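Q: What does the assembly look like in three dimensions?
Context provided by user:
Components: two
Sequences:
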Amino acid sequence: MPVKVMIPSPLRPYAGKRESAEFNARTVGEALGHLTTEFGELRKHLFTEEGKLRSFVNVYVNDEDIRYLAKENTPTKDGDTISIIPSIAGGCFPLYGSPRFCGTTKERPRD
Amino acid sequence: MADAPALWISGHLAEKIRAHGAETYPHECCGALLGRDSNAVLESDQAQGSLTAAREILQLFPLVNRRDDSPRNRFSVTPADVMAAEKAASAQGLEVVGWYHSHPDHPARPSEYDRDHAWPWYSYIIVSVQNGAPQDMTSWRLNDDRAEFSPEGIEIRHRAAV
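A: Here is the predicted structure of the complete assembly.
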């Protein structure tokens, strides 16, 4: 049984509406590589232009966050499940082209 | 998307989002939008017989803003919160279809930070809260190329869509 990659709702439109996909992969990076090769439009939503996983993309192997394992080099074996779980983040500063700060303070808000 | 999508939400739920923003002011509030996508025909389009894709918001899942280091201008929903929202949605036969947050003393328009951190497909509702009073409420979806958001019309419906 190959490695199963669970596809989160916001990415399913780019993966033929599939909830999961299975690949033969020895590492998380290899599995994500197969995923973005098969579904090319996923790539920009998972990775930066420099090829790094976006900060709001959380990847788990069998419920363990790969940040606490070997990251994309985390080994995988047949039957493992890789889950991609979103973080959601945002905030009001800065607007496109706007120098305005939020609230009444003039202190530059933190990123 | 071929046509501008529409977001359907009851007046009651829209008011709850606004109230959440007022409650947490001057900090940003946040929460999940639970609902479903529908191909129901908009009443306004019935004469033309056109089909407008719509997304119905049927429930909210208010969350705690996890950015306690900078809550005046940032919000954060952790993966655990996302999974909790998805579990709550699934229990009701719904999906997490988007997220809402407030902009304290700032327009209800997405920021560059919003764009950089956004996921496609989700609806992002933003409510502006000026001096503690909720003002404009808008909704947005990230474009496929991630370059910008497209506005999503909000239609207040006073009963569940058929």
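Follow-up: The domain at 3-86 of chain A is CATH 3.10.20.30 (Ubiquitin-like (UB roll)).
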